[in-house]
Amino acid sequence: MSDPKVQQLLDTAYRDIVGALGEMGYPIGDDNFRETGPRAARALLELVLPVATIEQGVDDLLAKSFTATYDEMVISKHNVCFGLCPHHLLPVIYRVSVAYLPSEKVLGISKLSRLIRLLSKRPVLQEQLTQDLAEVLHSRLASRGSAAYIEGLHLCMAARGIGAHEARVVTSAVRGVFRDQPATRQEFLDLVTAAPTSLL
Ligand SMILES: [Zn+2]
To answer: How far is the CA of 160 from the centre of ligand 1 (A)?
Structure first.
């Protein structure tokens, strides 16, 4: 399914990583490591999709918008998804909330979650993910405004020497009326940062 060249590069890279673990004294001849190289390569390909796949996916999602009969704020909040940090290639666990104010087009609510998952599967900074989500929901959807709010648990911070186990990176981006009207922006932030309800 994935590009054979990509698969081959990853297989080689992960074989070398396993080799390095052997140099560190780990028993890489054991059963546990037998298929680790290709398995790790497949796992990475679940965290990162090719650029062309992402672009096509966004186009497909937006093509299924329908005409707005609703002009209030639409919010999809607390979507948990995963990405990869470009600095350390370590996973990031995101909790993503987005909102937009429709103008002519509305996206199905499940499409918002799919858009978030899709755009998170890239080796990009959290700041970039936040801005890209706001941008797509504003310019591509021709909305009156959009907002994105993301909390990220970065394993490169949590699990490494910094020891910032509990630290979350928080980013937000706003476009259109969310930028022009502080009250609209605040309404969004209040809704997405409120304590979880007991609904689930
Ligand atoms: Zn990092």
So the answer is: 10
